[in-house]
């Protein structure tokens, strides 16, 4: 039955998921919260858990046969034809510290390919959506990557130097110092900026599928390319190292510098 859903049906559900997550997260944003350290030492809050549960409740009613891969509550039916990949609050540290640059990430994966990607930024009031064949949008307005083909002209961003191990940092530093501009911070918003044409490269490590699959769908729909550091497509079992680029030529140069 899942294959009978249209892209419009899926987009409606994705909007409902983002709305539900925002209703919980915004209610608790910039309020005192109990912080819990997860196994990977990233902080999780009541807002994360409640927002994801609200999303799962919608899928339980709308998409019972689909799988779910969520950051806070784990895996359900991930062997299904279609899997919803959810990160209710990407950038929990930003959320905790009152920064507006956190978002909700949603991806719909079918047969190993991302069919829908969403980066929702509740505080900024920006909802970025990508679907194959229909392009990418920010709040209903079409967006597209910048036509940047030279590393020397590229604007590169990553969340923090702290996400890299020593060898990966050396590779990132080598690449980023050859770019026209490098910036740190922004969490998932960097991927939205790439889709919107104001950033050209995002390079990160240590990510999980719920961190990168939503942005992947958005950027690919906007005309960009996203792979791992070996140039392979991202999926549910990728190693967490991500290169997102505005153009294939820029992507090729970035991979070469990372591997140098």
What does this structure look like?
It is globular, with a radius of gyration of 17 Å. The protein contains seven helices and 15 strands. The strands form three sheets. It has an eight-stranded mixed beta sheet, with helices on both faces. The protein has helices at 7-28, 46-62, 92-96, 166-176, 189-196, 209-221, 248-259; strands spanning 36-37, 43-44, 67-70, 74-76, 82-90, 103-110, 113-121, 126-131, 135-138, 141-143, 155-158, 181-184, 201-204, 225-227, 242-245. It catalyses: L-histidinol phosphate + H2O = L-histidinol + phosphate. Pathway: Amino-acid biosynthesis; L-histidine biosynthesis; L-histidine from 5-phospho-alpha-D-ribose 1-diphosphate: step 8/9. Its EC number is 3.1.3.15.
Order of helices and strands: HEEHEEEHEEEEEEHEHEHEEH
**Could you tell me the strand content as a percent range?**
25-35%
Rounded radius of gyration (Å): 17 Å
Strand order in the largest sheet: 4-3-5-6-7-8-9-10
Measured as a percent range, the helix fraction is 25-40%
Q: Major sheet: size, sense and barrel closure?
A: 8 strands, mixed
What is the overall shape?
A: globular
GO molecular function, one term: histidinol-phosphatase activity
Family: Belongs to the inositol monophosphatase superfamily.
Cofactor: Mg(2+)
Catalytic activity: L-histidinol phosphate + H2O = L-histidinol + phosphate
């Amino acid at each position: 039955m899942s294959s009978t859903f249209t892209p419009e049906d899926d987009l409606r559900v994705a909007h409902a998921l983002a709305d539900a997550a925002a209703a919980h997260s915004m209610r608790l944003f910039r309020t005192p919260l109990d912080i819990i350290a997860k196994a990977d030492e990233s902080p999780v809050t009541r807002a994360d858990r409640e927002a994801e549960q609200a999303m799962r409740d919608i899928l339980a009613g709308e998409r019972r046969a689909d799988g779910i891969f969520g950051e806070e509550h784990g895996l359900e039916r991930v062997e299904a034809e279609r899997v919803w990949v959810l990160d209710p609050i990407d950038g929990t540290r930003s959320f905790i510290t009152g920064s507006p640059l956190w978002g909700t990430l949603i991806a719909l994966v079918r047969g190993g390919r991302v069919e829908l990607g969403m980066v929702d930024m509740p505080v900024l009031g920006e909802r970025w959506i990508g679907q194959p064949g229909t392009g990418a949008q920010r709040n209903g307005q079409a967006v597209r990557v910048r036509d940047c083909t030279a590393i020397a002209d590229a604007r590169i961003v990553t969340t923090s130097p702290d996400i890299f191990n020593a060898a990966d940092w050396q590779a990132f530093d080598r690449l980023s110092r050859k770019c026209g501009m490098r910036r740190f911070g922004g969490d998932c918003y960097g991927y939205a900026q790439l889709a919107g044409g104001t950033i050209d490269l995002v390079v990160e490590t240590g990510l999980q599928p719920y961190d990168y699959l939503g942005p992947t769908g958005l950027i690919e729909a906007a005309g960009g390319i996203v792979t791992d550091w070996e140039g392979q497509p991202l999926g549910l079992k990728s190693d967490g190292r991500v290169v997102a680029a505005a153009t294939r030529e820029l992507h090729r140069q970035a991979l070469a510098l990372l591997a140098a």
